[in-house]
Amino acid sequence: MNYSPKTKKKNKFDGYFTYGTHYFNEITKRNAHVDSMSKKIKKYFIDPKTNLLYLHMSEAMICAVCGGKVHRTVFVKDGFTHVKCCACGFIFVNPTAKDKYRDHFFGKLYRTWTKVLLTPEQESMDAGKFKYGLEFIEKHMPGKGLLVDIGAGSGLFLETAKNNGWDVSGIEFNSEAVKVIQKRKIKVFAKSLEDNIYAVNSVDVVTIWEVLEHINHPVAFIKQVRNILKPGGLLFICVPNINALVTRILQEKSRTFGGSSHVNFFSIDTLSRLAKKNNFKVLETDNVISELGTIKNYLSYEDPYSGSAELCLDFLTPEYLYKNNLGSRIFMLCRKIR
Fold first, then answer.
1. Residue 315 burial by Cβ neighbours in a 10 Å radius (0-12, 13-18, 19+)
2. For residue 266, what pLDDT band results from cuts at 50, 70 and 90?
């Protein structure tokens, strides 16, 4: 298959493409993580009398993109109701679990995801993805400065940036992940931006890799990020793509949807609107991670994440998906204005 140089670069850090869906999910312990966490989520969040989120844990939401209060239910998954804004089409969880309950769960009980991040195969793929993302940033800011990664995970991206000449710092609440970041000798805070960790107008670049989909109040969060960025500073965002082909086909069966953790579901359009609403100029967007194997499994009547289908769909290639913004992750780079 003849791919463009850009697609070849993306394929190298797409674990589903490199290893195959079944093998990649097994070797990185993703399937074991999902099985383990689904039981804990149900026990912690879901009222057995209603099979919905406990009422005392719940918080009603409005559309973060347009402020709309009218929405329709798309589906209920694992006790969490997913809705679509009738004004702008943004999909989100409503009601969602209050921050104090989610913070406790993901700070104290969410252990197995760090194990996924530290598997050699996942680290290998992430290293390529983070290098690609850093190049994305450095095209628009060739000079080095202070880069802050919020939701730093294992700290691999911060290590990548540090090795490329950046002054780095991170925020991470998962206690297991914090230990890993500290072993990398990288400064990390288990605090929120509300604790004034960084001074106003002091940071050159803020990165949020697969974090914004977890935030109950994304508008307030983006305003806090904007506050610490220097005038002209850059914000890099990576989120799941609600318009990805794999998500469109699987819908509620997609692992993108998990109301205990993922509460916001962005497209390039809705993410752009959120950025512009908060005085950011969108400089560039991209999409990565094809998940073609997941799609082929599902279309072959196999489990999408553990099947090993070899269905031939010659017209469906990573090149086609990326050209049409159908990859499973969005990259967006924005500049702070005014």
1. exposed
2. very high
Return the percentage of the chain with pLDDT > 90, whole number: 80
* Counts of helices then strands in the chain (DSSP H, E): 14, 15
Q: What are phi and psi of 158, to 5 degrees?
A: -60, -40
- Specify whether the CB–CB gap between 224 and 212 falls below 8 A: no
Omega cis (within 30) before 318: no
- The residue among 33, 24, 21 whose CA lies nearest residue 307 is 21
Q: Which of 286, 316, 313 is nearest to 300 (CA)?
A: 313
At residue 283, the 3 state secondary structure works out as strand
Identity of the residue numbered 44: Y
pLDDT at res. 284: 97
Q: What are the tokens at 16?
A: 């589903």
Residue 338 has pLDDT above 90, yes or no: no
> 157-212 pLDDT, tens per residue?
999 999 999 999 999 988 888 999 999 999 999 888 888 899 999 999 999 999 99
The amino acid that residue 266 corresponds to is: F
CB 215 within 8 A of CB 97: no
Q: What residues does 83 pair with on adjacent strands? A: 73, 92
The DSSP secondary-structure symbol of 241 reads B
The pairing of strands 96-97 and 58-59 is antiparallel
- The string over 90-125, giving b where at least 16 C-beta atoms fall within 10 Å of a residue's C-beta and e elsewhere, is bbbbbbbbeeebbeebebeebebbbbbbbbebbeeb
CA distances from 15 to 12, 126, 320 (A): 8, 9, 18
Cα–Cα dist 263/63, whole Å = 11
For residue 328, what are the contacts with CB-CB under 8 A and spacing of at least 6?
240, 241, 244, 246, 247, 256, 287, 288, 289, 290, 291
pLDDT given for residue 67 in this prediction: 95
Burial 267-277 (b: 16+ CB within 10 A, else e): bbbbbbbbbee
Q: d(Cα 198, Cα 150) in Å, to the nearest integer?
A: 12
Q: How many other C-beta atoms lie within 10 A of the C-beta of residue 243?
A: 19
